Amino acid sequence: MRSCLSCPVADNFPVVQSERGHSRELAEKARRENFPVASRLLPRRHRDHLMAVYGFARSVDDAGDDEPGDRLRLLADIEADLVRLYAGQAPKLAPIRALARTVRECGIPAEPFHRLVEANRRDQTVTRYETFDDLLGYCELSANPVGHLVLYVFGEVSGPRLALSDRVCSALQVIEHCQDVGEDYRRGRVYLPGEDLRRAGCPLDDLSAAATSPRLRRVVALQAARAGRLLAEGQTIVSSLSGFARTAVAGYVAGGHATLAALRGARYDVLARTVRPRRARLLAAWARVLMTMRWPGAGLQRLPSA
């Protein structure tokens, strides 16, 4: 485990405090997530670090998804700024400058950040995934690094925890893909495995319809079930943690449970409306996770999903 005191960034690295914290735009994006990104139940220092990490991840996603022009060039600029940060030089981009204190105080290596950039770089050239295993390979870049960053923020990094975190984060990514089928398709991307679509007899045209066809619902339900199994495999990480780390990670696990319940409640109709977990359901799932995972090895696999 690496402590939250050492860091490869030079101690005299300038931190721009005015660019840290909860900007209105970033806070609004965080509120739209399936889980509490930086709950007020956590101390301010943890919330600030989590929001700095979230701000970077959102900026990279926006560069890869929404920015006009040469997105590969934008992503290259972000990566070059990361190199500046870890060389102890002044970054040019606000989201990278905002990371300086977090990287320094939490001893975060550069690799998870670079993997997030690589995921968005891949999005520019790879728009289909043939198998679920192929999709999990993408999650290793797009989702799993976020869990590693969270563990660094709390100083709780270990090999077993990283492995469990990967399952939770991959589950959350697959769940989000289920929610965003139509939005992703409009961007020219399909995160439902091609072999599953063919087996269900589901043409790609179904992904642009006003309502979800029965065959597409079956494909979405299959991905949700797989995500549920990943979540069940990884959620025992909560029992290995204590204090604020346990509270935060339980919230992320609960968000997965609550969103899966919302998808089931909508009968996997993800095109007619945006399927999101209700706040009350999320809070109930959060309390249930915390109560169930009070000791190492607790059987959260038996936990109902909200």
TrEMBL record:
<dbReference type="InterPro" id="IPR002060">
    <property type="entry name" value="Squ/phyt_synthse"/>
</dbReference>
<dbReference type="InterPro" id="IPR008949">
    <property type="entry name" value="Isoprenoid_synthase_dom_sf"/>
</dbReference>
<dbReference type="GO" id="GO:0016114">
    <property type="term" value="P:terpenoid biosynthetic process"/>
</dbReference>
<keyword id="KW-0808">Transferase</keyword>
<dbReference type="GO" id="GO:0051996">
    <property type="term" value="F:squalene synthase [NAD(P)H] activity"/>
</dbReference>
<dbReference type="InterPro" id="IPR033904">
    <property type="entry name" value="Trans_IPPS_HH"/>
</dbReference>
<dbReference type="InterPro" id="IPR044843">
    <property type="entry name" value="Trans_IPPS_bact-type"/>
</dbReference>
<dbReference type="Pfam" id="PF00494">
    <property type="entry name" value="SQS_PSY"/>
</dbReference>
<dbReference type="GO" id="GO:0004311">
    <property type="term" value="F:geranylgeranyl diphosphate synthase activity"/>
</dbReference>
<protein>
    <submittedName>
        <fullName>Squalene synthase HpnC</fullName>
        <ecNumber>2.5.1.21</ecNumber>
    </submittedName>
</protein>
<dbReference type="InterPro" id="IPR017827">
    <property type="entry name" value="HSQ_synthase_HpnC"/>
</dbReference>
